[in-house]
Amino acid sequence: QWVNQSFNAIVNYTNRSGDAPITPSQLGTAYVSATTGAVVTALGLKSLTKHLPALIGRYVPFAAVAAANCINIPLMRQRELKLGIPVTDENGNRLGESTAAAQKAIFQVVVSRIGMAAPAMAIPPVIMNMLEKRAFLKRYPYLNAPLQVGLVGLCLVFATPLCCALFPQKSSMPVSSLEPEVQDQIRKKDPWLETVYFNKGL
């Protein structure tokens, strides 16, 4: 779990939006809080499987992954939530930094990541549960692991690009949804501008 969440933390940091500077100590704090929070949540949910039916227990890892994403991504990108991310007009001219845009960007990324994991963690458990009740896997138990890995891989091949495409990389939002001070800043530059754009990250 720790290695997995450490990998996720690196992915979340390197694919962030914005260019707000971050010191090594701030990065270290974000990493420790993100990985610790995600691991504790995942292990806590995993401990519930002991008292649940087998099929329901198979879905606990998905709940753990979803919860971990909800913790890991915002914590690794917390500087964006504090300082904002750049918002631009349709031509790419920078108009300011917005925390409201950062919140929307991070929300979209969290939804995308959970969507990526959903098919791979929802479909194989049903199929494996059916196969385990039949004579096939009892006769060939060594096929259990390869089948699970193959099913997960097949799901990820389709789910990853589809969920990356759920929201445009260059996202947009109305100027009226930004913080009042950012709205004022933009109105001074372009009084008629109605929509701003931002990079949501991955």
UniProtKB/TrEMBL annotation:
Catalyzed reactions: L-serine(in) = L-serine(out)
Any one Gene Ontology BP term: serine import into mitochondrion
Gene Ontology molecular function, alphabetical: monoatomic ion transmembrane transporter activity
Membrane spanning stretches: 105-127, 147-167
GO cellular component, one term: mitochondrial inner membrane
Lipid biosynthesis recorded as keyword: no
Coarse class of the protein's main subcellular location: mitochondrion
Keywords recorded for this protein, A-Z: Amino-acid transport, Membrane, Mitochondrion, Transmembrane, Transmembrane helix, Transport
Entry membrane topology: Multi-pass membrane protein
A Pfam family reported for this protein in Swiss-Prot or TrEMBL: SFXNs
InterPro entries (alphabetical): Mtc
Compartment annotation: Mitochondrion membrane
Role this protein plays: Mitochondrial serine transporter that mediates transport of serine into mitochondria, an important step of the one-carbon metabolism pathway. Mitochondrial serine is converted to glycine and formate, which then exits to the cytosol where it is used to generate the charged folates that serve as one-carbon donors.
Annotated family: Belongs to the sideroflexin family.
Stated name of the protein: Sideroflexin-3
Organism: Horornis vulcanius
Gene name of the record: Sfxn3
